[in-house]
Amino acid sequence: MQDKKTHFKKIVIAGVGLMGGSLGLAVKKAGLADSVWGWARRPVTLKQAKRIRCIDQGSLSPAAAAGADLVVLAGPVCSTSGMLKSMLPYLAPGCLITDLGSTKKQVLADVAAVFQQSGKKRLWPFFIGSHPMAGSEKAGVLASRSDLYQDSLCILVKTKKTDSAALRRLKYFWQAVGCRRVSLLSSEIHDRLTAAVSHLPHIAAVCLVNRLAADARRDPRLLDAVSSGFRDTTRIAAGPPVMWLDILLTNRQALIKALTRLQRELSGVRTMLASGNARGLYRLLEQASEFRQKLEILLPK
User: Fold this and answer.
1) Which CATH number fits domain 190-298: 1.10.3660.10, 3.60.150.10, 3.40.50.620, 2.70.70.10?
2) How far is CA 163 from CA 65, 80, 166, 264, in A?
3) Global pTM?
4) pLDDT digits over 120-158, tens only?
């Protein structure tokens, strides 16, 4: 008999891409739902999702949410409130609602406005922001993996209106799909932390790739010299631009602060190189090497 804390009758995933499709596979693998539905804009997406069996049923209409006891908004960050608004007329009382967005403060503000304007305020306590910190530079439902969330950290963001029982149930859900740890943070702290460990590295990788592309136009031999070091450092720059544009624009304040700190680091390196400060450069490299090795204990394999 399934545990009522983790089992759902009907889960609807709105936005069946890499993240949504992988969640569907994980849910089905763990037996967490009687049925998994997908809502998408394009018939081909639903056809592909059914082919890899990450959903049982698909719909091009937000009416897919009817009868659901869990709705997961898995589209780009800036689409979250719009998807919610479309689905609200079909949501049953007590339906648990969450998103997968990498930013939270702006998303929660937009979601709050939807609830306030909709006349469905009684559903507001059952919306809880989720951010499973997992992903890939690949995109689309065909890139889905049942183990994408395995051993990852999932951050939950509640508000003053959040229903405590719903929060517990969502925590159990993320643990059941493989997350090794579930943490509770405010939206402000969440956005500051993700700016530092996720969004800033992505921007750094993007700038490195674009710098190489510009330099290679002047000297194509540079491309022959690219090897595994550059490939590994910049892998994440291949991520979907639409998704990352939303992330950057909805976390501007925290990211600008993180960029300012990185610019100071780079300026310090430039100064040491200009003056031939071997001792300072060695210490810089040593500190980074030691800390990166310690991170191996914390980072999922």
Assistant:
1) 1.10.3660.10
2) 20, 20, 5, 43
3) 0.90
4) 889 999 999 999 998 777 889 999 999 999 999 999 998
